[in-house]
Design brief:
198 residues; mainly beta; 2 domains; 2 helices; 7 strands; 14% strand; globular
Length: 198
C-alpha cells in the first residue's frame, strides 16, 4: 500500500486535472499517487483477467467535492491498471510527485505499508441473507455484540471482492454505466484499524 509500483518506464503516469476545493484557476494537473499493488498469487479470485497478474490502484490525493461520474461525491478520483508482470521490461523508478500538496491530515495520501494477505469469510448485509437459520443466527450475534451488523457481516479494511459496508446508506445496487447490470465490489480501501488494535 502506498509504495512503488511495477510501472513501465515508457507508460505515461496518470494525472488529475479536476480542480479541488482549494485550487486556484489555472492550477496545473496533479500526479496521482500509488495506493495499492496486488499480485494474483496473493489474492486469487475470479476478478482477475486471464492474462493479468498485477492489480494497481492510483488516485488523486486532493479532495473533490463534486468529481465527474462515475466517481462518488467527496471521494478520490481513481485510476485502475491491470497488467502482466512479465511484460514490464523497464520499471519507472521516479514517478512524478503531486503538484498540489494537501494540508496535514487532509486529503488522500496513503501511508506506505505492506499487507499480509489473509482469506476471510465475508457475508452480505444481514437483510440480504436468505431467510432461515443463518439470518437468525447473524441477527442474534449482532444483538449480542451490539455493533449494528455492518462490521460483523462485512469484513472491514482493505480487501478484494465480496461485500461492501453500508454504514452511510442502506444497501442498494450500483448499476454499470455501460450495460446497466449490477456492479460487484472489486477492491476496498479503508482506514479502519485492524481488529484488536488501538
Amino acid at each position: 500500500m502506498g509504495g512503488p509500483l511495477l510501472w513501465p518506464a515508457d507508460e505515461a503516469w496518470p494525472y488529475c486535472d479536476v480542480p479541488d476545493e482549494k485550487s486556484d484557476p489555472g492550477t496545473p494537473a496533479t500526479a496521482m499517487v500509488a495506493v495499492a499493488q496486488v499480485y494474483r498469487k496473493n489474492a486469487p479470485g475470479d476478478w482477475w483477467p486471464e492474462d493479468k497478474d498485477v492489480f494497481q490502484l492510483l488516485w488523486c490525493p486532493d479532495v473533490h467535492w463534486d468529481p465527474p461520474a462515475p466517481h462518488a461525491d467527496v471521494s478520490p478520483i481513481a485510476e485502475i491498471r491491470r497488467r502482466s508482470s512479465a511484460e514490464v521490461r523497464r520499471v519507472l523508478t521516479s514517478p512524478p510527485s503531486p503538484v498540489r500538496q494537501e494540508d496535514p491530515d487532509y486529503g488522500y495520501s496513503p501511508d506506505p505499508c505492506t499487507l499480509a494477505p489473509v482469506p476471510l469469510v465475508d457475508s452480505p448485509y444481514p437483510q440480504a441473507l436468505p431467510d432461515g437459520e443463518l439470518l437468525k443466527s447473524v441477527q442474534e450475534y449482532v444483538g449480542a455484540t451490539g455493533d449494528g451488523g455492518d462490521v460483523i457481516t462485512q469484513v472491514a479494511g482493505i480487501k478484494f471482492g465480496k461485500w461492501p459496508t453500508w454504514h452511510l446508506t442502506e444497501p442498494y445496487d450500483i448499476p454499470c454505466l455501460t450495460c446497466g447490470a449490477p456492479c460487484h465490489l472489486m477492491f476496498t480501501v479503508a482506514s479502519d484499524q485492524p481488529p484488536g488494535s488501538r
